[in-house]
Amino acid sequence: MRLFTLAITCFTLSACSNIATKNGASQWDFDHNIQFKQTKLAENKYHLEVNPKSDTHFDKLATFMIRQSYEICGTYGFTIEVLKGIEKFDDRKSFPNLIMPSLSANIECASQ
After folding, report:
1. Does residue 107 register a pLDDT over 60?
2. pTM
3. Could you give phi then psi for residue 58, rounded to 5 degrees?
4. Nearest 10 degrees: CA dihedral of 64, 25, 78, 73?
5. What is the pLDDT at residue 101?
6. What are the extents of the domains in the chain?
7. Which run of H or E residues covers position 5?
């Protein structure tokens, strides 16, 4: 009976481990507490938008974008074209209540 219960539990947990999301749907990375949208534009070309929270710093968003680009492409050699959302070095000091736009970029994976 224990073996049966263990098998059912493992099967149930593994069924939920890799749920496919719709193209362009909002997703959460709970490890980094970041919300992002990932859209496939064409073969080997994606659009990634990382949404900041009020306490999320730009360096965390940029690092997440690079790591997510690597995860999308599966290898190095990808190209990131940043479209908007670059924060200036002194933006938080000069404008403490400024609402920063999402960090948005197109990612092109290397042809294999």
Report:
1. yes
2. 0.71
3. -60, -40
4. 100
5. 78
6. 23-108
7. helix 2-15
Helical ranges in 50-110 per DSSP H: 58-73, 91-94
Q: Which tokens is 38 given?
A: 């990932």
C-alpha closest to that of 66 among 55, 57, 77: 77
23-108 maps to which CATH number?
A: 3.30.1360
Give yes or no for a contact between 84 and 104, defined as CB atoms under 8 angstroms apart.
Answer: yes
Pairing of strands 103-108, 34-42: unpaired
Q: What is the pLDDT of residues 38-76, one digit of tens each?
A: 999 999 999 999 998 767 788 888 999 999 999 999 999
Burial class for 107, CB neighbours closer than 10 Å (0-12, 13-18, 19+):
buried
pLDDT at 45: 97
